[in-house]
TrEMBL record, chain A:
It is a peripheral membrane protein. This is Oligopeptide transport system ATP-binding protein. It comes from Muricoccus roseus. GO terms for biological process: peptide transport; transmembrane transport. Belongs to the ABC transporter superfamily.
From TrEMBL, chain B:
Belongs to the ABC transporter superfamily. It comes from Muricoccus roseus. Keywords: ATP-binding, Cell membrane, Membrane, Nucleotide-binding, Transport. Its main location: membrane. This is Oligopeptide transport system ATP-binding protein. It is a peripheral membrane protein. SMART domains: AAA. GO terms for cellular component: plasma membrane.
Amino acid sequence: MKEPALLEAIGVAKHYPVKKGLLFARQVGAVRAVDGVSFALHRGETLALVGESGCGKSTTARLVMRLIEPSSGDVIFKGENVTNVGGAKLRALRRHLQIVFQDPYASLNPRLTVADAIAEPMTVHGIGDAASRRERVQELLRLTGLRPFHADRYPHEFSGGQRQRIGIARALAVEPEVVVCDEPVSALDVSIQAQVVNLLGDLQQRLGLSYLFIAHDLAVVKHVADRVAVMYLGRIVEVAAKHELFSNPRHPYTRALLAAIPRPDPSRRGSVTPLGGDLPSPLAVPPGCRFHTRCPVAQAKCKELDPPLREIAPGHTAACHFAEDLPRFNAEADGGVAPVAQLRLAAYAAARAARAPAVVPAG
Amino acid sequence: MSMSDSLLRIEDLRTVFRSSNGDIAAVDGVTLEVPRGKTLGIVGESGCGKSMLSLSIMGLVPRPGRIAQGRVLLEEQDLASLSPAGMRAVRGAEIAMIFQEPMTSLNPVHSIGDQLTEAMRAHDAKASKAELKERAIEALRRVRIPSPERRFSEYPHQLSGGMRQRVMIAMALSCKPRLLIADEPTTALDVTVQAQILDLLRDLQAETGMSVILITHDLGVVAEMADEVAVMYAGRVVERGTAKDIFEDPQHPYTIGLLGSIPRIEEDRDRLLSIDGSVPPPFAFPKGCRFNPRCPFAIRACTEIDPPLRELSPGHRAACIRAPVELALDIAA
């Protein structure tokens, strides 16, 4: 990509000291939550950060938003190093970086009406006057598939899907360039999840947003991301364009993640292969490659040498000594929907489209 | 399915909660069979009544809820009519249950061993302490917990989420139940840990021959585990059949919409099919078919007739007057 990155992380790390003793507490170790992460988010794209709990994906997102302070590394926004900016400059930065949280039940203030919750970021950033904000709230409600009269209601009156729409409207209120979506659909039911995934896609197209999409569900990522970065134990282990990552993963952990997903297809039963062992504690990161304790193809070298994230094909990086030697693996191959089911899905989509104008899609 | 093939039969079960506007039915006329030695998957979204159904089977419906109608037959015995003491003897020994949250299901102030032996002692008062300990360690070994002797004296916080769920499974299986109810057993777990737990459940079922009711919202997990599937919506079963029936020949529009809503790894659509609107709460179920306001195939009759489950092919039933939709819409197959 020729254009410089919109948002960039260079070797960002967050170590939390672990102390022992009461009066003369001394540091006995460190939780390496994020341990040297670099990536670039380009304008208009969706970069997904995926990994299992404790891999540091949410911490990484909060670091690049400057919600927590990195222990080392740099955050670059539009070519400017913003790692240490403060005060008015930090506030200005935050206007461009907004976040949608995972839990729509916990992330909205129960005592604010929807209109107040959506208008709050504009008040904080001193945008517009009361009248123009009211107007903007109405515009945002329409944009996110909610109704005008929802403005005066309180969060408890809404379902999870609707609350997530409110959260999205609030994030968009100050016209950000980057929206960090921290597991925005994982608390929602599947049918509602699809509504919100579709909404995020529509909004990106209309507003030219860039998404940093944090997720643990690779199937969801498959439908929203342009590029995918896989994290394990505080590090990025593989980055590739979406199609490349699913059809030709080059890190054993990425493969393990893909192989563990149960497919909605009973004819493929038994193809799920579990990964052995437990995730090591970030307090005691294994030496060498941090995945070697669970890796099915680990060799002696992996216990000693920490493999760097290196380019193995244009736009495809992986942190594995043997990335090129792994056999073929394609998670996109075969499967899919049975013919009769396909026919009914098509009929459903057609019937739904035919009556769409009458229905407001809000959950 | 003939009657003798099933271990558990639920007949026209209705579980209600009293309110100022009369009884609200969370489970409303559910009939199901659980095949012997097999897995019945119950799928549905939040609020469909699937968890209340499992609590009804266990006799654990929270007050002021109660079973207002129907029978829960374990072999010949109607569990719905048992006294609390009679039900206590069945729970654990005949039917056991594991829950979604392995973090909150274990008591943080007691060791793993104490909690395991407590469950065993409840059903076997005569066993000695040493005997129980031995049995508990064996139970931990069966769910493939590494170094079970050490884990026996550890506390829940020292275990990972996957290990805790293994302990819950060990506890549930300690009295060799004939039926295991697993309510979203892997929802709180990471995908690689989920794969381990599903693998374990499958092996344990093959070893013991127990029947399993697997309650989940995850269609991938259902396809992986279930022999028979029931799809629930708004307190009712709207479609039943084998896993193959449900995934390859979905008949109810809700099932079709659900299958369209799941993102699939092997596909890459611009937009997911979604179901408009959301699940209505039990006090506001619509008239006629409960899915009609969200259904793209709904016609006037759907707002008037409450469709019963009808058989579309042997063993495959759907509660929809429009099924199969390609015939109703005159689309060539």
